[in-house]
Amino acid sequence: MSLQSHGPVPCDDADGHLVTAGPLTPPADSAGTAADEKALRHSVAEDVQGMVLATLVASLGLAIFAKGGLMIGGMAGLAFLLHYGLGWNFGLVFVLVNLPFYWVAVRRMGWEFTLKTFAAVTACGVLTDIMPRWVDFANMAPLYSALVGGALSGLGILFFIRHRASLGGIGILAVYLQRTRGWSAGKVQLSFDSCLMVAAFFVLAPSKVFYSAIGAVVLALVLMFNHRPGRYMGV
């Protein structure tokens, strides 16, 4: 006497391999569907806390650069250069030099990205200026300023990117020129930063420019190692 089977019966396929089908068979992969994308999208609360944390981290990195008398690339670097050379307020200059890039951001990235970026630039500029009133660095070695300032600034930018924002600047224009003219965004960014470092020799001591270059490299490495498509699934 044999027992009657109440489930699917294994069978051989055309190649002689054992195959089964039934309630334990895993469902088809649904990754990339609309439901999957909705589940991964940041909520408003997640965006707010992410933007706040990004602002705190990035502005601390910029404040450490300022205390060390260093600068970085992009519009933040230009704002630092004008701050050191002419005594202008860093936060105000940082906001003003980014204004021409917002129309590019609206056209290429949309209103959400543009408004978040405007908020990020303004908040970081203001917080970098007022942070010395809250935190007093008695001593800041240039090498420490370059390494830690570069790392924190890079992490802040990474957080902004993951919440569809940025610290504005030449990066937006670089992406626009790559899409419309076919120019390499990396080369555009590198060319601008190289010109900025050359100009820095007229304002800063050569040793400060050297440490500034180290800080810029550290920032770039943080983004290079951590900002990879597919590694982070939040949108």
Structure description:
The chain is mostly helical. The chain has helices spanning 34-40, 44-67, 74-86, 90-98, 102-109, 111-134, 142-162, 170-181, 185-200, 206-226, and strands at 11-12, 18-19. It has a two-stranded antiparallel sheet. The longest helix is centred in the N-terminal third of the chain and has 24 residues, at 44-67. Mean pLDDT is 80; it is low at 17-32.
Low-confidence stretches: 17-32
Structural class: mainly alpha
- Cα gyration radius (Å): 25 Å
Give the topology string: H per helix, E per strand: EEHHHHHHHHHH
Strand order of the largest sheet: 1-2
Helical residue percent? 55-70%
Q: Count the DSSP helices.
A: 10
The CA-CA distance between the termini, in Å, is 60 Å
Strand content: under 5%
The best one-word shape is globular
- Arithmetic mean of pLDDT: 80
Q: Count every beta strand, where a strand is a DSSP E run of 2 or more residues.
A: 2
Q: Sketch the major β-sheet.
A: 2 strands, antiparallel
